[in-house]
């Protein structure tokens, strides 16, 4: 049986020979100017989009901070109202009429003998070693 052997063609260099190279056509001034204009427009559009995205992000943050501030202001107002209610209850519970009623139920009796203990005018404090 005859066997056919194929041979590969000789490898050429990856670069074409200088004689086979095509000369690049000269680029006109107008085309260069158009490229620079297109590049400038592209860069300005990209920068404009980045600016707008940053602006929208900052605006969103400011809005969130405003909502948070309003929420905290409401919480402060509520805490002040609760505090005011508690002060009113303290005034009611520490009133002389109520204390007299509580003392009477505890078995205490009113007295006319009052003893006042004067507070010291000056307190000396010694440093401990």
Top keywords for this entry?
129 residues, mainly alpha, 2 helices, 0% strand, rod-shaped
Proportion of beta-strand residues? under 5%
Structural class, judged by helices and strands? mainly alpha
Topology pattern, helix = H, strand = E? HH
Coarse shape: rod-shaped
Description of the molecule:
The chain has 129 residues and is mostly helical. It has a domain at 29-105. It is 58% helix and 0% strand. The protein contains 2 helices and no strands. It has helices at 29-93, 96-105. It is rod-shaped. The protein starts with 28 loop residues before the first helix and ends in a 24-residue tail after the last helix.
In short, what is this structure?
The chain is mainly alpha-helical. It has helices at 29-93, 96-105.
């Amino acid at each position: 049986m005859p066997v056919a052997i194929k041979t590969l063609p000789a490898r050429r260099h990856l670069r074409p020979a200088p004689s086979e190279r095509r000369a690049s056509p000269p680029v006109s001034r107008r085309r260069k100017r158009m490229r620079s204009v297109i590049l400038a427009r592209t860069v300005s559009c990209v920068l404009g989009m980045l600016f707008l995205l940053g602006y929208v992000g900052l605006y969103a943050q400011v809005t969130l901070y405003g909502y948070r501030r309003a929420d905290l202001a409401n919480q402060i107002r509520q805490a002040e109202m609760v505090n005011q209610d508690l002060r009113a209850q303290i005034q009611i519970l520490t009133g002389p009429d109520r204390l007299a009623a509580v003392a009477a139920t505890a078995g205490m009796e009113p007295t006319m003998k009052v003893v006042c203990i004067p507070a010291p005018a000056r307190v000396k404090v010694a440093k401990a070693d």
